[in-house]
Structures are given as structure tokens and as C-alpha cells.
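Let us practice reading a record.
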Amino acid sequence: MHATTASPTVALADESQREAIELSIVIVSWNVWPLLRDCLGSIAQVTAPVPSAPAPASAQRLWGPQGAWQLEVIVVDNASSDETTTALPCEFPWVHLIQSGGNLGFTRSNNIGYRASRGAYVFFLNPDTSLTAAAQPAPGADPLTLLHRTIATDPTIGMVGPQLRYGDGSWQNSRRRFPTRWTGFFESTWLGQRWPTNPWARQMHMVNDPASAQHEVDWLNGSAMFCRRAALAAICAADDPGPFDEQFFMYSEELDLCQRMVQAGWRIVYVPETTVVHYEGRSSEQIVMRRHIFFNTSKIRYYQKYFGPRWAALLRLYLRSEYLIQLVVESLKWLMRHKTALRRERIAAYRAILRNGFRSYW
């Protein structure tokens, strides 16, 4: 079994090891083995084994129209209770499995994968994605080759991302503009639901920008971020464990990473010529109530970091008021004996959220 137990202090791979690896794919996984298996299978479909690679370099594989580049795949598993850690080494022996020892969150685990990686480029990929779900791509037309070609030919680009599609084939918007001070009140909130055409959410989601052509963006959905290692290294201080800010457990972490990358002078480009299927949210579906806490806590921390404590406090007050109103509504429905089991479950969840107050991740 090609598996190791790691901590957040995983050492960086040395430079001599990196020379042979062009791309490292880093995947963070938690209890989604069927999706992870399909994701790794899709990577295998567009690559080929390195026939003479000795262990432990068996994780390296060739890809591209001429088979000119080597890659490695690193899976950081956050103490899954499913069959991930037993089945993965058997089915995909070329994958480097790192067992983190606990549910460390998305940012911390990605930093572990980054520090263990050797590639000149690092592709942070979610386990609920597929490179070949729609059809087998033609040689040289797979997402890995096309994304690599785009970023490698322009040294000013720090990150590229593909067009995303949901599992049913419908388009998923993955490109964004940076939020303003008012965006947090009108995007993914009750106000946003009541006023879906509000200008702040529309601006962030780039509603008026064509999605069919390649163009520069502010940030990309974190499910498929193909990055230049030099750009990632440029936003890391000497004592940083990696490019992700670990103050974000999950959510808003890709926004923060992209903002720091742009501030450092790198460009971020959306590449619709290639498609990755994203089934979205399968890990967080396992913890629905905590997902609300994670999402809103990260949003407030982003506001604290970029807009200051007053705006963060105002946003926290508004978000708590939303859940207080929902608690009152659910309590009234429970008193009216309407779906009492469902109301009781929601009341308990909203009370837990209000007790937390979006001040911690639990």
C-alpha cells in the first residue's frame, strides 16, 4: 500500500525530486469514496503509466498528446470512515495517499498536499469532479492538457480554471469578481433570494460577461484550480504551511487565495474550451447544519480580513438575524402541528447555529 500518515508539518519535496514532475494533482477527500474512485478513474483515462518508474515514484504518469509530461496524484484523506483508505491503494496504486489523521478541513489538508507535491504546476481538484464524465476526450483535448497549455504559454498567468458542468450536464458558473462591502448581504442570503437581480450578486457572478470565451477573472470556483507553483509560492510567507489561509476551515478559501494572488501581480484566467464535471457539495452534504456555520463563518472572516472589523460585525449581526427569523417561523409552524418532526429538527439546528453565532467553526 502506498499510504502514509501525515501532519500539517509535512516537509516540502526537495528540488531534485521536483525536476521530473510537471504537474501535481492534489485532492482532499472525506467519506466520498464512490465519487473519489470515479474522479481518479477519469484521471487514469486521460493518462498512461510510466513503464519504468521505480517505487515510490509509481505515482507518476505520462499525459499529453505525445506523452511528454509526468504527473503525480496526491489524495489527502481526512479520516474517512468509509472504504477510502483500504480500497484506494488497491485500485489506484499509483496514487500517493496521505492520511491526515483527522478532519482537518479543506485549507489545512490542501496545504499538506501542496507541501508533499513536486510539480511545477499544482491542480487542486475536488473529489466530486470528473475529467471524462461526458465523453472520452480526443488525444490532447483533455482538461489536463488544455489547462496546462494555457498556463504554460503565458508566464503572467498564476491560475486557470475550466468550464464546470453539473452532473446533469447543465452549466455551472465558476468565475467571479471580487465582492464589495455589500455583496455579503445580498449573495446567498434571504435578501438575495427576495431580490435575485440585485446588482451586487450579479456583479460578483459576472452575469453580464459572456461565459463562452476565455477571459481574465478575479477568482475561480475552488473545485478545479490549476495553479503555477511559482504563483503559489509568491503568496506564502516564510512560515506559512502553504498557500491557503488556514483561518478558513472551508468556504471562501479560494476567494482569499485568488485575491492574494492577484494582489501579488498574477493573472487568473477562465478557460471554457475545456470542461470538468462537478457534482458539488457531496462532502458538505453530510453535515448540513455545520455547513451553514462553515459558510457564514468564513464569509465573516473574509470581511474581517479585507473590509475590517466593523463591516464583519455588521454582517454577523445581519446573518444572525436571518436565522433568528427562521427559528421564529419554524417554531410557529411547530405550534400549528405542521410536519412536527421536520420543524423540531430545524428548530434544533437553528438554535445551534445561533448559539455558535458564526464565531467559530464548532
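A brief commentary: The longest strand covers residues 267-278.
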